[in-house]
Design a protein that fits this description.
The protein has 103 residues and is mainly α. Helices cover 62% and strands 0% of the residues. The protein has one domain. Helix 4 packs antiparallel against helix 5.
């Protein structure tokens, strides 16, 4: 049986893009993704952040660094990638909150 490290090594950028395309197409997530995301704009940093969310190893430091890197001076000049990043940050916050509560 593979450990999580082996799974993550096999998780390629194409896998990540495909997974995000599926998430954006899921009616359950319609409110999070009001416009289609150009998954070609997803970065290696986005993928590494997402992997930490998936395996629940995300930390507050990871979250703070990600937010700092991608925060904008003018939040009203957004693009479709902002929707992915907001979605990822919300997922990360939920995981961190559960860890803090011992859930």
């Amino acid at each position: 049986m593979e450990d999580d490290g082996e799974k993550n090594k096999q998780y390629a950028p194409d896998d990540f893009r495909r997974e995000i395309e599926e998430l954006t197409g899921d009616p359950e997530n319609t409110g999070d993704f009001p416009e289609k995301i150009n998954t070609g704009d997803l970065t290696a940093e986005d993928m590494n952040f997402w992997i930490k969310i998936k395996d629940k190893s995300i930390t507050q430091t990871d979250l703070d660094q990600y937010i700092e890197k991608f925060s904008k001076k003018d939040p009203f000049q957004g693009n479709s990638m902002d929707y992915f990043r907001m979605f990822a940050v919300q997922r990360a916050q939920a995981i961190i909150g559960k860890k803090e509560l011992g859930i």
